[in-house]
Write a structure and sequence with these properties.
D-Maltodextrin-Binding Protein, domain 2, single chain, alpha/beta, 12 helices, about 20% strand, about 45% helix
């Protein structure tokens, strides 16, 4: 009887071991992935990420959900993802914002270059200089003249200190030696209500947020910060055309990151699936219609090299524009 019990126990242990091995060996992914988005729901970056999540789920033959974690211009979301298990199931919709925030706030509890493994860049978008549709200002030069005539009286908004909208506005003001007041909001979705409500007189939201507002007649576009004009706003000049200033050429980019320590084979699988998702014609058409462009890195390593170059570039912009953390 004792021998039978020992054999039964050994059999149960063997079954448990086999079950654990099978669970471990299940192909990735075997449960839903989560993309943490540092932007408020309904804004351009959030909508783009949700569309990408749908295509990524198809490419992975799994499920992908999106979770918004808004706060501190992207710092909160980044810190949340650094604490997630490095298993490929929690991703960050990382962007230039986190790179900038680390430059501004070295004490932040994450580092884009070491706390994460970059998977791939996904998009790039310039900012768009907007005024309300009923503003008498018709051009960037007219806005410049108005600010000069009313020093310290005109406000520009952003989704927070160090965001693309803030840096574009700060660069515009500093390079032209204009006295304008920066008003940071909790997120980019608050910019248009503030612009319509006249709490701010101009703003530099990214194209994904700005273009729909221009198309709907709620705002007027005066210029774009990209190296070339937007296909969706072909009559709107670039700041480079107007002022011939390379520092005003600024692009907000986005990508996917996973926590450091994520297995290389999982990172490669995510890279391959994301690249496939971004090749979807419907997704590309949507990005282009809002002023963004689909951008895919050659490899995770190439994305890391790009991020290193961006870190150096934005450190220079921040220094020259005199941007400081609050």
């Amino acid at each position: 009887m004792r021998m039978i019990k020992q054999l039964a126990c050994a059999g149960l242990c063997l079954l448990a071991t086999l079950a654990a091995t099978q669970a471990t060996a299940q192909p990735y992914p075997n449960r839903p992935l989560k993309i943490v988005v540092p932007f408020a729901a309904g804004g351009g970056p959030d909508i783009e990420t949700r569309r990408l999540a749908t295509k990524l789920a198809l490419a992975l033959n799994g499920n992908v959900v999106v979770e918004n974690r808004v706060g501190a211009a992207g710092i909160l979301a980044a810190e949340v993802v650094t604490q997630a298990p490095p298993d490929g199931y929690t991703l960050l919709a990382g962007s230039v914002s986190q790179v900038v925030q680390k430059v501004l706030r070295p004490q932040a509890q994450f580092d884009p270059l070491s706390s994460f493994i970059p998977v791939t860049q996904t998009s790039s978008s310039p900012t768009v200089l907007l005024v309300p549709a009923d503003s008498p200002v018709q051009t960037a030069k007219e806005l410049e003249a108005l600010i000069r005539s009313r020093p310290g009286q005109l406000n520009y908004g952003s989704g927070g200190i160090g965001t693309a909208a803030h840096l574009a506005g700060a660069t515009f003001a500093s390079q032209l030696k204009l006295d304008a007041v920066h008003v940071p909001y909790r997120g980019s979705v608050e910019l248009m209500p503030a612009l319509m409500g006249k709490q701010i007189q101009f703003a530099f939201p990214i194209a994904g947020t700005a273009v729909p507002q221009v198309k709907s007649g709620k705002a007027r576009a005066l210029a774009v910060s990209g190296a070339k004009r937007l296909a969706s706003l072909p009559d709107v000049p670039t700041l480079k055309e107007i002022y011939n200033d390379e520092l005003m050429v600024q692009e907000a980019w986005g990508g996917l990151w996973v926590p450091a320590g994520t297995p290389a084979d999982v990172v490669q699988q995510l890279f391959t699936a994301t690249r496939k998702a971004l090749q979807d014609p419907e997704l590309q058409t949507h990005y282009q219609s809002t002023g963004s462009s689909v951008e895919v890195s050659e490899s995770p390593a190439a994305f890391l090299s790009f991020m290193k170059a961006e870190t150096a570039k934005w450190a220079k912009v921040i220094q020259l524009a005199g941007v400081k953390a609050d």
